[in-house]
Amino acid sequence: MIEFRNISKIFKNENRTIEALKNINLTIEKGDIFGVIGFSGAGKSTLIRMVNLLEKPTSGQILVDGQDLSKLSEKELRQAKKNIGMIFQQFNLLGSKTVFDNVAMPLKLSKTPKSVIAKRVHELLNFVGLSDKANSYPNQLSGGQKQRVGIARALATNPSILLCDEPTSALDPQTTTSILQLLKRVNQKYNVTILIITHEMEVIKQICDRVAVMQDGEIIEEGTILDIFSNPKTETARNFVHSVLRDEIPPSIFNMIQSSDTFSKIYNIEFIGESSGKPILSQVAKSFAVDVNILFGSINELQGVPFGNLIVELQGEKEEISRAYDFIVQQKVIVNEVIRNGS
Amino acid sequence: MEVSPELILQACWETLYMVSVSLVFGSLIGLPLGILLVVTRKGHILENTFIFSVLNPIVNILRSIPFIILLVAIIPFTRFLVGTAIGTTAAIVPLVLHIGPYMSRLIENSLLEVDKGIIESAQAMGATPLQIIFCFLLPEALPSIVLSITTATIGLIGATAMAGAVGGGGLGDLAITYGYQRFSTITIVVTVVILVLLVQVIQSLGNFIERKMRKM
């Protein structure tokens, strides 16, 4: 468990001060995959570095498993860091050492016997799927493979927390997915709490349980990803959600319905969970004298919960449409009328 | 009067002797000094304004004294250290004092090339400052350090030519005393050719080792 309590961080330059973090309060429960999303400069890199004290807070407290790291001696802190693994956007592997030696490094630093190291490293390389690369050098690996080595290295000392600093930002979408799947396996198999910072909503969507949205050093929104995706409250959160879930009528379709002259209304229907499985629209078409025209639709799965939206046009008599609307509202879905002059 | 092959051979040995011994002692000064100049600077792993602001100007001062001046300026110190102020061994003292600070700057540059992310990952692993230096910084900078040492070695060969001023001997001295002062063009040509070859061999060797290391 990681707790941020009233964390502030101020960077002082010769002539200006920057408030990188403003009174952050955040709790990350054990076993969670917690995502922090924000644009660059939002303070998320500073935030993640507070957990292992690579950056020290100007004020406030950070508790890792109930322990305030800033109260520890240098030696105790080094010991505590072995419980917190970290991976990086640029991987930060040693180019002068083999994959094996890179993964072995954290164990060598704590003077682990060689036979134990060899066993553990092979186990880890096997876990990340790089058993055949033990004697390769990082230069000979692809970006995804390098991140796998990074993950193996971070896990070497059996940490209970894994910090991920933009782990997929240097990778292509396909590799991103495979790395995220690996992180999910790390979370499930070793019960490691994962804190991941990113500017890609796709990352949050694929693996996070909870998410915090950061802007200008503040957490402006926090919740389960279903909360944030289905009901983003701030403009920034909405923009991030829209970057992966499109819920606007494509312009070409919009032009088409603009020019038709039958009476109709357009609704955006959002489905969450079990309502996604119901044949609502076909019931509408059967029970009311309306034609249903689906303009746009998408279904996603967030943490195993289906979540999606449909933009539909109901054509027919005004009264029939309003009766159909009342019926849809009763089906535990969120319905909004889409205004014609925009979205 | 022509120079004999024996004299040339002896001069070669004197040059190699001065270069190699100065290189060893110069490295013993330059390497730790270079490391200190990096790790004590602001924001680094052993930030120490006092040590940095003392070492930095000392290195600058030593670097700014022309070698020929340094050579004679420290004669009392040389006499105190090796018992004499003239001869090949005596020339080594100013050579070391000349090349040590020079090397510290080269090593400093090599170490500063190491990506900050490497240090950050080491700190995240809970490495001690000494572990960061020896397990992360130095291994990562090694290919670049090899090139730095190569440059320093070639700089030393140039400096040994001036060592003739204190009777240090060597190829440079031979070229001046026999070639220039006794008008023996052939001596100048021969010594220059030997020096050019020597520099070529050392540079190629340095490049070769560096490339071997980087291929990893």
Task: Give a structural overview.
The complex is a heterodimer of chains A (343) and B (216). Chain A is of the alpha/beta class and 343 residues long. Chain A has 2 domains: 2-244, P-loop containing nucleotide triphosphate hydrolases (Rossmann fold, 3-Layer(aba) Sandwich), CATH 3.40.50; 251-338, ACT domain (Alpha-Beta Plaits). In chain A, 36% of the residues lie in helices and 30% in strands. Chain A is built from 12 helices and 14 strands. In chain A, the strands form 3 sheets. Chain A has a 6-stranded mixed beta sheet, sandwiched between helices. In chain A, strands 2-1-4-5 form a 4-stranded antiparallel beta sheet, with helices on one face. In chain A, helix 4 (114-128) crosses helix 5. The longest helix of chain A has 18 residues, at 173-190. Chain A is elongated. The mean pLDDT of chain A is 90. Chain B starts with a helix and ends with a helix. Chain B has helices at residues 5-39, 49-64, 67-73, 75-82, 88-112, 116-124, 129-162, 171-180, 185-215. Chain B has one domain: MetI-like (MetI-like fold, Orthogonal Bundle). Chain B contains 9 helices and no strands. With 216 residues, chain B is an all-alpha fold. The interface between A and B is medium-sized, with 28 and 20 residues.
